[in-house]
Structures are given as structure tokens and as C-alpha cells.
Amino acid sequence: MTIFIIGYMHPKYDKRVYRMVKSLSKKNKVIYQYITNKNEEEYFKDNIKYIPIKYKINFENKIKEVKSRGKFDKKIIQLIREFEYDILYMHHFLTTKPVLPFKIAKKRNKKIIYDIHEYHPENFLNNLSGIKKQIKEKVLWKIFEKQLNLSDKLIFVSKDMQKDIYQKLNIHNDYYIQKNYAEISIQSKEKIKEISFVGKINRNLEDEKEILKKLIQKGFKFRIIGMESEYFKDIPHDYTKFLPYEDMMKELSKSLFSLISFNTVKNRNYKNDIFSLPNKYYDSIAAETPVIVKNTFISMAKEVEKYNIGIVINPKNIDESVDKIIKAYENYEELLENIRKYKHEFVWTEEKEKEFVNFVLS
């Protein structure tokens, strides 16, 4: 069995994409296309044929970017037409040719797996607003529906996203929920009275800043794990540089809480956020660190409350949020006990891998 995995604009070691590549390559041949900003050659290793395509996004000139993206997409289309494979596994759609890869694979009688990382109709060109946003989403929903109908099986990051899309489009494809599980599980050996924020900084965290300032007044510290940012220059904090995954997990395991609250766009009902289950969420639980989650993150908030592994806050209500965090700190052992009880559900295991591979191949 040969699986052609289109990583599209994902880099070689993207956590979600590369996990699928490694899992499927254990007993099958995998052809893996990914993006790179370096001059790399194709090579074959451990059942994987690596197909790097050099590309640099032009953020300054949109017209040039569209032309360049068109050329990039044509290269991938050519590969989809010419390579021999049994399954086409799409990790995104081609911007200038969103339906064509699905049509080509279908015409060649190949099975199509579509791994839907984001809520595409809202996520694509998510900076648009007003009438432009409405037109974009109307067009994207039609394109998205065609993609899904041409696909044999679908993979989603959360049940809520799958359910919402299926209800809207009235489709019945076979599907699988592949969450962004943590790679490893860490036993927390020490706890510092600090709240950590992992990964890149997102905008629109003004309410969270006020919460952090009040918590700092009450003896908490704030730390950013993975980078320093001018965005938090008005808040006393420590930071680490970018860390290898295991080192990051060890540092995260020392924190009392992990803050998972952000706004990708101004729209607070942006479904790509409210249905998200990001890596940092799973990593936090696997590192035995309770999470502080914004209440509009529906998928995360439901799990946090179900397992009692953190606190769900409304950042707009600053005093209430601070009180909830203080109360959770006073009952911290209960949170830790629940995390240790359920954290196996948040970690990638051989059993989960086997289930995923069986779904793809069956």
C-alpha cells in the first residue's frame, strides 16, 4: 500500500502531519510532500519518499503571492497526476486549485483521505470582514462541500467541528477524530507558583493581561515558554527561548497553571478557535499542569469541566476569573489528582496509532 501525503504549506516536521507520516510508514510506503525555504533534494528513508518543494510566502505583495502560489500548486497537481499511489491523503487544499486534486485522484480510482485541521470556510482569508467575508464564506462552503463529497474518509481535530460541518452540509462520510495528542507524558516533580503561556503570542489578550496583573499582585509569577515578546512588556514576566519538545514539557510541568486563551481574529465566535483543541492544551495535561481555558473555547471547556482538570474563565469578567483561579489554587491537589487519572487520554499511544492507521487503510 502506498500513501501520498500532501503536507502542502506545512513544514517537514509539523507535529500533526509528521506524526501521520511516521505512523503510516511503519508498514506502508509513504510519499510525503512538504514545504521548505531551503534547497533540498528528494530522498528515500525508512519507507518514506520525501518530496520537498521550496517556497517562501510573499506577505508584502499579494499579486505576486497569488502568481507564485499558482506555480506552486501546479507542481503538486503534476505530482498527483503522475505518482503511483493507492491513497491520496490531503492535509489542506490547494489555494488556487481547491477541488482539482480531489477530482484527479477520484478519476484515477484512488482513495481520498481529507484531514481537516481547520474550519476552512472561516479560516481561509480570515482577515476579511463585512460583505467580502460573507461572499468569501459562501464561495468556500460550496468548494468545501465538493471536496468533502469527493473524499472517501474525513479526519477532524474535534468532534464539535465534525458535528457542526456535517449538520450544515448534511453529509454522511465516514470520519475519524484525530486529536492533537501530546507526544510524551511527564511526571511533575516540582511546582512553582506561576502561570505559563506556551508558544507563539496571539493578539487581543488585553483582558487576560489584566487578570495576570492581579494574580501577580497576589504572589503569582508569569512565564512565557518558547519565546520573548514585546506584547507582554507591560507585565512582569520570565521567559525561555525556544526549547526542544522534551525540554519544553519539563518546563511546563513546573508551572501551576497553563493559560490557554487567545483570539486569532476579532470575531469571538470564530469557529476555528471555539472548536480548537491545540497542541498546547494536550501538552499541558500530559505535563500534569492544569489549564486555564477561555469559556468560548467550546471543545476545550467541555473537556476541562468534564474531567475537572483546570479552570474555565470568562476573561471579560476579570475579578471573577481571578477568584476562580485563586480558588483552584486552594484546591490544587484535586486538580492534580484528576489530571493523573485522565492524562492517558491526552497522550499519543501505540493503541491510538493502531486505531488511526486502521481507519486510513480499511
How does this model look, in words?
The protein is an alpha/beta fold. The chain has helices at residues 15-25, 62-82, 100-107, 120-123, 130-150, 159-169, 206-217, 245-252, 271-274, 279-286, 298-307, 318-330, 332-342, 350-361; strands at 2-11, 29-36, 43-45, 48-54, 87-90, 111-116, 153-156, 174-177, 192-198, 221-225, 238-239, 255-260, 291-294, 310-313. An 8-stranded mixed β-sheet has the order 3-4-2-1-5-6-7-8, sandwiched between helices. Strands 11-10-9-12-13-14 form a 6-stranded parallel β-sheet, with helices on both faces. Helix 11 links the parallel strand 13 and strand 14. Helix 7 packs across helix 12 (318-330). The radius of gyration is 21 Å and the shape is globular. The model has no long low-confidence stretch (mean pLDDT 93).
